[in-house]
Design brief:
455 residues; Aspartate Aminotransferase, domain 2; 3 domains; 17 strands; 36% helix
Length: 455
C-alpha cells in the first residue's frame, strides 16, 4: 500500500525535514527527474489480473512440443512426490537458518542433500548448494586459486559456454585471489578435449584445469588423463559433471578430481524457462575451509539428542570483503530439497536404471539420424544422453522448420561456437518414446529430401 500524506509527514518529522524537497536537497539538480514518470495510468485489481492473464497466455511453454533440446536444461519427468514434500511445513524456515532451534527441518534436509552429493561424486564434503552450474564453475576456480596461490585457469571449450562466460566475467570483477581474467581456453573438437592441448596450456602458474564430462557436445572425456595433467603441474583438477550421468559413469573421485561441480537441474527440477535450478559442489576433505557457501553438520545437543547446525557459514564476506575466499554465502535450499527428494524417489537402483535408459535411447536416435543422407557425426565416441550431428543444412534452419511440425529439434551449436552453424546438439531423456523419435527422424528426412527451405 502506498504511503498516505500523513505517513509522509510523520516520517519527515522524524528525520527533521520540512518537505520532500528538503529531504532530497543533497541530490544535485542535474540528476533529478524533472517530469512525471512515463508510466501508464494505474489499474484496478480486476483489470490488472486480466492484463497479467493476457500476458501469460503469450508464453508458449513447449509442453505441446516433443523436445530434443538440452544444452544444460533437460526434459526429465518430475514426479508429483517432489511438490508434495517440498511444500511441507517442516521444511519452512527463515531466510537464513542461523537459529538451529527453529530450523531443524531445513537443516536436516540440507545435511541429507550434502550426503547425497558426496555419495554421487565420491568426494569428502559437499556444501549446501550454490546458485547454478555456472556459479559453481567460477567458484571452483577461485577455490583453486586460493589453495595454490596461483592465478591461471585452464578450461576446455567443452565446458558449457554459459558456464565459461560466468567464469570469464567473475574472474575479472569478483575473483578474491585476483585471477584477473587469466583464463585460457583449450579447444574441444568432436566433443572431446585434446589432452596434449591441455598439457601445452598449463604451466607453473596454473591453479586449476576444468573439464566437463559429458562435454557440452555429449562426449565422454578422458578425465583420468586430464586430472594427471593438472596434478603434474601442481594444479587442482575440477570436474564439471552431470549428476544423472553418475548413475552409469565413474564418480569424479575415482579419476582424481579434487573438486566436482555442476548444475542440479536433471535432479527433479522443472525446466522453468531456464531456472531457478541449483549448483552443486563437492571437494576433498582438505579443501573444506576454502569451499564457498554454507555447510551443515550433524551434532548432539545438551541432552545428547541428534541435531543439525551450520558448521561453516560464510560470514567472512562481511568482515574481509575483497580478501574473502568467496562472497557467495547463500544456497538454493528449496531446489536442493527437491533434488534430495528426487534422488530418494529414484533410489540406488533407479538412478543407474534411468541413466542407462537415457543412454540407450540416445544411442538409438543417433543411429537412426546418422543413417540419413548427408548427416554425419560430430561427437566422437560413446555418449550418455546428448550428442551432436553435422547436417547438410544450417542447424538453425532445421530447428525453425521442425518446430511447426511439433518438434524442438535441438540446439544450433553455431549460437555459441564459430564455424559450427551446421552442427545440431540433440538430447534424449527417458520421456522420449520410440514413436516420437521415429517421427522426428521422418520429419528431418522429409526436410532434407526437400533440400531445406520451408517445411
Amino acid at each position: 500500500m502506498p504511503h498516505s500524506q500523513e505517513d509522509v509527514r510523520a516520517m519527515l518529522s522524524s528525520v527533521g525535514a520540512a518537505s520532500l524537497d528538503e529531504l532530497f536537497a543533497d541530490v544535485p539538480e542535474q540528476v533529478r527527474l524533472d517530469r512525471p514518470l512515463d508510466l501508464p495510468a494505474g489499474l484496478s485489481e480486476a483489470e490488472l489480473a486480466a492484463e497479467m492473464t493476457s500476458l501469460a497466455a503469450c508464453n508458449v511453454p513447449g509442453s505441446e512440443l516433443v523436445s530434443f533440446l538440452g544444452a544444460g536444461v533437460y526434459d526429465h519427468y518430475v514426479p508429483a512426490v517432489i511438490d508434495a514434500l517440498v511444500s511441507r511445513s517442516e521444511f519452512m524456515t527463515a531466510y537464513t537458518p542461523y537459529q538451529p532451534e527453529r530450523s531443524q527441518g531445513v537443516l536436516q534436509s540440507i545435511f541429507e542433500y550434502q550426503t547425497a552429493i558426496c555419495e554421487l561424486t565420491g568426494l569428502d564434503v559437499s556444501n549446501a548448494s550454490l546458485y547454478d552450474g555456472g556459479t559453481a564453475v567460477a567458484e571452483s576456480a577461485f577455490l583453486a586459486s586460493a589453495k595454490t596461490r596461483r592465478t591461471g585457469i585452464v578450461v576446455s571449450t567443452g565446458v558449457h559456454p554459459e558456464y565459461r562466460q560466468v567464469l570469464h566475467t567473475e574472474s575479472y570483477g569478483c575473483a578474491p585471489q585476483g585471477c584477473g581474467g587469466n583464463v585460457i581456453e583449450v579447444p574441444c573438437d568432436g566433443g572431446l578435449t585434446s589432452v596434449d592441448a591441455l598439457r601445452d596450456a598449463v604451466d607453473d602458474q596454473t591453479a586449476a584445469v576444468i573439464v566437463q564430462t559429458p562435454s557440452f557436445f555429449g562426449g565422454l572425456e578422458h578425465m583420468d588423463q586430464a586430472a594427471a595433467v593438472a596434478h603434474d603441474a601442481g594444479a587442482l583438477f575440477v570436474a564439471v559433471c552431470d549428476p544423472l550421468s553418475l548413475g552409469v559413469l565413474q564418480p569424479p573421485a575415482a579419476y582424481g578430481a579434487d573438486v566436482a561441480v555442476g548444475d542440479g537441474q536433471p535432479l527433479g527440477q522443472p525446466m522453468s524457462f531456464g531456472g531457478p535450478h541449483l549448483g552443486f559442489m563437492a571437494v576433498r576433505g582438505d579443501l573444506v575451509r576454502m569451499m564457498p557457501g554454507r555447510l551443515v553438520g550433524e551434532t548432539v545437543d545438551a541432552e545428547g539428542q541428534c541435531g543439525y547446525v551450520l558448521t561453516f557459514q560464510t560470514r567472512e564476506q562481511h568482515i574481509r570483503r575483497e580478501k574473502a575466499t568467496s562472497n557467495i554465502c547463500s544456497n538454493q535450499a528449496l531446489n536442493a530439497l527437491a533434488a534430495l527428494v528426487y534422488l530418494g524417489w529414484l533410489g540406488k537402483q533407479g538412478l543407474p536404471d534411468l541413466a542407462l535408459l537415457c543412454a540407450r535411447k540416445a544411442d538409438y536416435l543417433r543411429e537412426r539420424l546418422l543413417a540419413l543422407p548427408g548427416v554425419e557425426p560430430y561427437t566422437v565416441g560413446a555418449v550418455f544422453r546428448e550428442f551432436a550431428i553435422r547436417l547438410p543444412l544450417p542447424a538453425a534452419e532445421v530447428v525453425r522448420a521442425l518446430e511447426p511440425q511439433g518438434f524442438l529439434a535441438g540446439l544450433d551449436a553455431g549460437r555459441f561456437y564459430e564455424g559450427l552453424d551446421d552442427v545440431l546438439l540433440i538430447a534424449v531423456t527417458e520421456r522420449r518414446t520410440k514413436a516420437q523419435m521415429d517421427a522426428f527422424v521422418a520429419a528431418l528426412a522429409r526436410h532434407l529430401d526437400a533440400g531445406g527451405g520451408a517445411a
